[in-house]
Amino acid sequence: MRCPVIVKAILLLTLAALAPPATGAEYRDGKLWLDILLNSGTELTVTAPPGKAPGFLLSETDSPIQKRIPESFSIRLANPEKLAYWGVLRYSEPWREDSGGVMREQFAWRDSQLVIDRLNLVYDEFDYPDRESACLRAAELGLGRNQVESIPMLNSTVVVRTASGEKHYFETPLSLHSFGPLRIDGSKLDFEGEFRVKTSNGQVLISQVIDLEEYLAGVIQNEIGSNAPAEALKAQAVAARTHAVNLLLSNKHKSEGYDLCSGTHCQVYKGKHLQNQAILDAVRQTAGEVALYLDGVAETTYHSACGGKTESSANVWKGSPRDYLNGVECLPASAGFDLSSEKGIRAWIGTPLSFPDMSSWEKASLSWSKSISKAALARNLGLSYINRIVINKRGASGRILDISFYGSGSVNLNSEYRIRQAFGGVSSSAFYIVGGFSEANGRVTISPGATLNLKGRGSGHGVGMCQVGALRMARQGSSYREILERYYPGVKISKLWIKDE
Ligand SMILES: [Zn+2]
Ligand SMILES: [Zn+2]
Questions:
Q1: Which one of 217, 240, 299, 345 is most buried, counting C-beta atoms within 10 A?
Q2: Ligand 2 centre from 465 Cα, in Å?
Q3: Of 273, 228, 113, which Cα lies nearest the Cα of 236?
């Protein structure tokens, strides 16, 4: 169904000209403020944590209307069926005062600084109530599906229903101020500060407007344990801050109206859930510091445990190699082992390791064993049986990167993540199958028995900073800069990327 949108377009133009940008990203008071999505849904409830009195102030952003709400409330769209509009983005251009489209702010990296550009988005003249129809239109125009977007609606009406049954109507976007901590939709996570309520694609979105540093304190608590030694927490803070800047530069969520989500898709952010003084100190003592490589932001990926040596990013993600992500030695004892060979990885996994001051999760991620039946493995691969496994390639960390299975058919896997899934969700692909093997032309052939016993090392993809390794280095007296230099050799730590406006 195609409908002309001249009237609505005019409405959008007017609103775009009047309304503030749909996202919260801005430099203010020397800080970078972000808009972090906390939750979305057709209806969201907002409460105070048990034992605290709820108290909220809801204000329309485009009008003086505001309302103090002294109790829990739920919020939903007044007319949900009318609020999904899909359109084809024809092009974007720099925003000017007289621009007549929809304004969007985008992050960009210029002159070694993170800048926020204002763009004028020019959509096709038609829009659609569903994504598929918009995709057909994009094809007609010779444009890709990636040009199809949910068109931001700035003035959706939402209904706020209080715990005692009062109803209030507001036009989005809304500012939500909470006089104490709040919780959304029964979650046990508490958030404090300033929030926004928006609508996108038929859903209500609640996001937090928070400065990058405070956001990071809510990120690193989930990553390396809130009781980690200070230098490991600081290394994690710099890695997570750098990763956040990379995520911002990818502008992944801009068309949905916020900067980052709070789930694993971006970085897990849980407010003040596990925060303690050590975490706040780690963020404060590294304030603004990110890892740069040459003139750009380094990709500071990290993982739980490499298992001995870290892996090359080009092996895991098939991109072009990066000098600072080529794989390094993490445990000095692994130095004499060629982990890319079957004999080498078997000998290394068979070498006992002892770290008396390690926590149980660190030990478990460093060395593990697991069994899977041959029948279950075949099922995971979509085969009715298998009788031969060929390991085609292992990386520098010993991770299997390419493996083939033969039986009722043949299946080849060349993603370390898929390989882990096929073997029942093992921690890493740096494992071997206990029993005999034969080797020819660099390929290892195994005829598995009814049960495959796996012995492995490491947890996660193995690229970049190894968290178990960072903890060990910190306990042995290394500084956070030494930790970062080990896992990302050649990067430079800088805080000059923040644009001081
Ligand atoms: Zn995300
Ligand atoms: Zn390691």
A1: 345
A2: 8
A3: 228
